[in-house]
Design a protein that fits this description.
11 helices; alpha/beta; about 25% strand; Rossmann fold; Cytidine Deaminase, domain 2; about 350 residues; ten-stranded mixed sheet
C-alpha cells in the first residue's frame, strides 16, 4: 500500500502534512502527494499555514524543495507569493483575508509550473480556506504545515495528518525515533468519556480558550484567562478539583505548577495538537495519579521519514525508517523518496499493534 493508498483508505478528503521541526521533509511529502494524486487524475487543492515553495529558505539561506503543480490545481496563496510563482494561474476569488505577503487569493493553475504557497495564519482561516477549496472543486486538499506547528493537524481543521520526521531532529536514527514515538503518544492521548465527560465538554464549549476548574459534582470555577497565561492559576484551583479544562493548551510549566499541589487534577485539552508535554512531565503526571485527556482525537494516517540533513551527511534511509517503525509499532511509516515502507494493519491499527501501542 502506497502513502496515497493509505490516505485514500481513511475516507478523508483533507490532509495536513505536519512536522516536528523545520527542514524535516514536509515539502518532500507534499510534492509526492501532488505527483501521485496528479497521476490518478485527482484534482487537488493546496495551501500552507506558513510559506513554502520558495527557492531559498529565508532563515537558513539554504536551497529548498520547490513545489510543482499541474494544470487545474486549486491553491490559496498570498499576492506576493503568486507574483513569485511560475505556474500560469488565474485568480478565481479574492478572499479578503490579509497576510504579511498580501491578500489571500484562490487561484487555478492553467499550466504546469512552480508555485509558492503562503496561506492562512490561523486555524479559523485554515478551516475557511479548506472549505472554499472543496466547494470550488478540489477532490483532495493538502495543507502544508509550517516549522513545528502541529495545529493544522487538529481534527477541527483536517481529516487526517501525516507526520514528517527528518534527520534534522537528531544525530542518530534512534534519537529521531524516540522523538517521533513521543509525539505519536501525545496524538494517541485518550478521549475523555464516561463520568463527567459531558460536563467538561459543555465547559469547553462555553469557555473556549479560557480555563476552568471542575469538581466531581460538576461545579465549575472559571479561571482568569487560559492556563497558558494565567499566573498562579494552580493556587486558584478549588479544593476537590477533578478536571482542569486547560483552554489554550497544556505545557510543562502548567503541569509543573499542578504537580506542586497536594492533589493533581486530570487535565483536558481540546485535542493533542494543544498538548506540549515532555516525556518526563508526562511520566510525572502519571506517577502523581493524574491523566491527560483530549476531547477529540488526532487521526494520524502515516509517518514519513526523511534521512536528508540541510547540512551534513544523510542518514541511512532504511535504518531510519526501521527505527521509527519499531518505536511506533501501530503506525505506517514511509520514505517517499527511497520508496520504502513499513506498514501494519489498517489506519486504526491491527489488534496486535493496538496491544503494543497501549
Amino acid at each position: 500500500m502506497s502513502l496515497v493508498d493509505r490516505l485514500e483508505s481513511t475516507g478523508e478528503r483533507s490532509f495536513a502534512v505536519v512536522g516536528l521541526a523545520k527542514n524535516c521533509g514536509k515539502t518532500t511529502v507534499v510534492n509526492h502527494l501532488i505527483g501521485e494524486w496528479g497521476r490518478r487524475g485527482v484534482r487537488l487543492g493546496l495551501t500552507s499555514i506558513g510559506r513554502d515553495g520558495e527557492p531559498v529558505d529565508l532563515v537558513t539561506r539554504l536551497p529548498k524543495p520547490r513545489i510543482r503543480v499541474e494544470p487545474g490545481t486549486l491553491a490559496v496563496t498570498a499576492e506576493a507569493s503568486l507574483a513569485d510563482s511560475a505556474a500560469p494561474s488565474r485568480i478565481v476569488r479574492r478572499m479578503g483575508i490579509p497576510s504579511a505577503l498580501g491578500e489571500l487569493l484562490l487561484v487555478e493553475t492553467e499550466g504546469a509550473g512552480l508555485i509558492e504557497l503562503s496561506g492562512p495564519s490561523t486555524m479559523d482561516q485554515a478551516r475557511e480556506v479548506i472549505s472554499l477549496l472543496r466547494e470550488s472543486g478540489a477532490e483532495r486538499v493538502v495543507l502544508d504545515g509550517a516549522l513545528d506547528r502541529l495545529s493544522c493537524g487538529a481534527p477541527s481543521v483536517c481529516g487526517a495528518a501525516v507526520l514528517s520526521c527528518g534527520a534534522v531532529l537528531g544525530s542518530s536514527p534512534e534519537t529521531i525515533a524516540e522523538k517521533a514515538a513521543h509525539q505519536v503518544k501525545l496524538f494517541r492521548l485518550p478521549v475523555l468519556v464516561g463520568e463527567g465527560a459531558e460536563v467538561v465538554r459543555r465547559v469547553a464549549a462555553s469557555r473556549g480558550r479560557l480555563a476552568a476548574a471542575i469538581d466531581a459534582d460538576g461545579n465549575v470555577t472559571p479561571l482568569d484567562g487560559s492556563a497558558l497565561t494565567c499566573r498562579g492559576f494552580a493556587d486558584a484551583l478549588p479544593e476537590g478539583c477533578r478536571w482542569l479544562w486547560a483552554g489554550g493548551g497544556i505545557t510543562d510549566s502548567i503541569a509543573g505548577a499542578l504537580l506542586k499541589r497536594s492533589g493533581v487534577p486530570d487535565i483536558v485539552a481540546g485535542d493533542a495538537t494543544r498538548v506540549f508535554l515532555s516525556p518526563m512531565t508526562l511520566d510525572r503526571l502519571r506517577m502523581a495519579g493524574a491523566r491527560v485527556w483530549v476531547l477529540a482525537p488526532v487521526r494520524l494516517a502515516a509517518i514519513a521519514t526523511n534521512p536528508v540533513r540541510p547540512a551534513g551527511a544523510p542518514l541511512d534511509a532504511r535504518l531510519l525508517l526501521d527505527c521509527v517503525a519499531r518505536a511506533v509499532p501501530a503506525a505506517a511509516v514511509y520514505d517517499v523518496v527511497a520508496g520504502l515502507a513499513s506498514e501494519c494493519g489498517l489506519i486504526d491499527g491491527c489488534e496486535k499493534c493496538a496491544r503494543l501501542a497501549s
